[in-house]
Specification:
By secondary structure, this protein is α/β, with parallel strands linked by helices. Helices cover 22% and strands 16% of the residues.
Length: 497
């Protein structure tokens, strides 16, 4: 593993900021933690951003808490999940270039210390995950129950069938270590498990961690038949500028307008099930009297699929480093901790900030042996402190890996580089470089690179340094090894007895 460089992150190795209680306090004062992650949700496919799809329950989080107007995820699924659980850019441990597809013998580096492992030290006895893991499936060493979680119901892979729960012809629906046949729509089943978890653990002596990474609204496009008719008249959406960078063999159908409109209708119905699930989780917290002292975070793992989900007014879509691919719908709520009032938080907040913020709340120190790239943003969320300037980074090279995208975001500027790997000799000269005055042009409409060559040069150095963090054994591009792959029976890990 390449040593961290402070130039690309906060290099955080000290005790983390404001905490709700000190390490010596009893666990009783600590909040419960609920993290809900949507999959491929368009930023404007929540109605609190003015979208046409009704999401009253997701909106409720923003109305009672805060809307995170500049929340950044990674461009695709696995990296966001990895960064959320480690507080570190996934490029450091080779899991940022692409997702982990079914045919990949790869997983989140077992040397990384994950959020549930750390929270266990603060007294979070029950730590459940219900949903899409997507961080390794070929060995038990990658399993959620070996990475700090105490309960797991869901699926290892992305893109499972919502009704029969299969991927590549094999059932991927796991209860702990066992594949189980369970009838029902996956979004509803995951919500059932989350609500049951709250009922069993609310009001106990110890706080709980609940992580619900839904597979909705990711493909395959499958909605409940009782919901779909409500969206028969929903119009399609235009392809956004910058969508050309998206890898269409990953994202699915782009095609003609009629096909996009049909998938748009189905996605809307899938989103209704997602929002209803969020509502049931909120109701469960209310019913068991723990809503006030529960830190609740909702966000999407990346932008929506090109031509199917609505990321306007931003450029790009899933699998791009433009704002439409990484600036996602997000909201947080914790009334007892001061995250309330329906405010908009304009400061940049990122998926890598989740772990350090929660460690700060729990009164824990960051793991000293590895620098965190995220920062404790509790003060920003409560409005108690101003954001301090920092850089943010993004990177993706899905599909064949021949074309990579790197972005560097400073407070005033954003540089997007599209081309060969920046670690290759002469790569910069063979790349397209676009510079945006992101503070005044968040929609990335005007490339001003020609007018500011000195800014491009300075930011390019940062982009090269960030790309150089990727180790040689990084996850391969998505399609590598796909041909001829046969899934194992019931997706049982190869070394599971």
């Amino acid at each position: 593993m390449q040593a961290p460089i402070r130039a690309i992150g906060t290099g955080l190795t000290l005790a983390l900021g404001v905490a709700a209680c000190s390490p010596g306090d009893s666990a009783d004062g600590l909040p419960n933690i609920v993290i809900v992650v949507a999959d491929d949700l368009g930023r404007r496919d929540v109605s609190f951003h003015g979208g046409e799809l009704p999401t009253p329950n997701i909106d409720r989080i923003a109305r009672e808490g805060v809307a995170l107007e500049r929340f950044y995820s990674a461009p695709v699924c696995s990296p966001t999940r990895a960064g959320l659980l480690t507080g570190r850019y996934p490029i450091r441990y080779g899991l940022m270039r692409s997702v982990i597809p079914p045919w990949r013998d790869y997983g989140l580096d077992t040397d990384e210390v994950l959020l549930p492992e750390l929270l266990a030290e603060a007294g979070y006895a029950a730590r459940g995950i219900f949903g899409k893991w997507h961080l390794g499936h070929t060995s038990v060493r990658f399993h959620p129950l070996r990475r700090g979680f105490t309960e797991f119901v869901g699926h290892y892979n992305g893109g499972i069938d919502y009704f029969v729960h299969e991927r590549e012809g094999e059932r991927d629906w796991q209860h702990g270590y066992t594949s189980v046949e369970e009838h029902g729509y996956s979004t509803d089943l995951l919500t059932d498990r989350a609500v049951d978890f709250i009922a069993r653990h609310a009001g106990q002596d110890a706080p709980f961690l609940l992580y619900v990474p839904y597979n909705a609204v990711h493909s395959p496009w499958q909605a409940r038949e009782d919901i779909l008719p409500r969206y028969l008249d929903l119009p399609g959406i235009d392809l956004p500028p910058g969508h050309e960078e998206a890898n269409e063999d990953i994202l699915g159908y782009v095609g003609d307008a009629d096909g996009r409109r049909e998938k748009r209708r189905i996605t809307a119905a899938m989103g209704e099930s997602l929002d209803a699930g969020v509502g049931r989780i909120l109701d469960a917290l209310d019913a068991h009297g723990v809503a006030d002292n529960t830190f609740l975070l909702f966000f999407s793992d990346n932008g929506g699929v090109v031509g199917v989900s609505d990321n306007t007014p931003f450029r790009g879509a899933k699998a791009t480093v433009y704002e439409g691919g990484i600036r996602v719908a997000a909201a947080a709520r914790w009334p007892a901790g001061g995250i309330s009032g329906g405010r908009d938080v304009a400061a940049p907040v990122a998926y890598i900030d989740v772990l350090p913020t929660l460690l700060g709340i729990a009164g824990l120190e960051a793991p000293g042996e590895r620098a965190l790239d995220g920062r404790d943003v509790l003060g920003v969320l409560t409005g108690g402190q101003e954001d301090t300037p920092r850089d943010l980074y993004s990177y993706v090279a899905v599909g064949s890996g021949a074309v990579e995208q790197v972005a560097v975001i400073e407070p005033e500027w954003k540089l997007v580089v599209v081309g060969p790997a920046l670690t290759e000799p002469g790569a910069a000269g063979r790349s397209r470089m676009m510079l945006y005055a992101i503070a005044s042009d968040p929609h990335e409409r005007d490339d001003v690179s020609g007018a500011h060559p000195e800014v491009v040069s300075r930011m390019l150095e940062k982009a090269v340094a960030f790309r150089a963090l990727q180790p040689p054994d990084a996850v391969p591009p998505y399609n590598a090894g796909r041909e001829g792959f046969v899934a194992p029976p019931d997706w049982k890990p190869g070394d599971l007895p």
